[in-house]
């Protein structure tokens, strides 16, 4: 997961780097000469807590990133008629998955202070919902492109019709000006 975060963000988040530093700080304390067994165990426990925090934060980064990617995709394709794909089931399924992913993400965020392991599982589930969305989008890519081209074709036709109406209206206005309106000024 940390590789995914680094690859997508093109940098490593400072919060995760700090947690890694803290893990190694507690582990290094176990090698002090006068360290007692209790002191070592306490530091190992603290290192494990930091490691769990790394895992939790990484899942949050990934889930949040995938959510933002989908929101960008949805905004980009919002003008196209995607509701007709699979008789509306495609779009409905995508929106249901998005709602479910967001609900699970919110529950995981509220759970993280109570149970980190459960919160990690829930964040992973949220991520899986967005993965399903992108798989569904990829599966219906050809139909999405058809909707995009149909939109462009309709937009082009509407533009041509609008231009022709403008030309006809200009001709009519000129005719009215020359023949009808100028008669009133003579």
Lay out the secondary structure.
Blueprint: H1 2-9, H2 14-29, H3 37-76, H4 89-111, H5 116-139, H6 141-185
Helix pairs in contact: 1-3, 2-3, 3-5, 4-5
Shape: elongated
Q: How big a fraction of the residues is strand?
A: under 5%
The main sheet comes to: none
Rg (C-alpha, Å) = 30 Å
The whole-number mean of residue pLDDT values reads 79
Descriptive overview:
This protein has 186 residues and is mainly alpha-helical. Helix content is 84%, strand content 0%. The chain contains 6 helices and no strands. The chain has helices spanning 2-9, 14-29, 37-76, 89-111, 116-139, 141-185. The longest helix is centred in the last third of the chain and has 45 residues, at 141-185. The protein starts with a helix and ends with a helix. The mean pLDDT is 79.
Keywords:
single chain; 186 residues; mainly alpha; 6 helices; 0% strand; elongated
How would you briefly describe this protein structure?
The chain is mainly α. 84% of the residues lie in helices and 0% in strands.
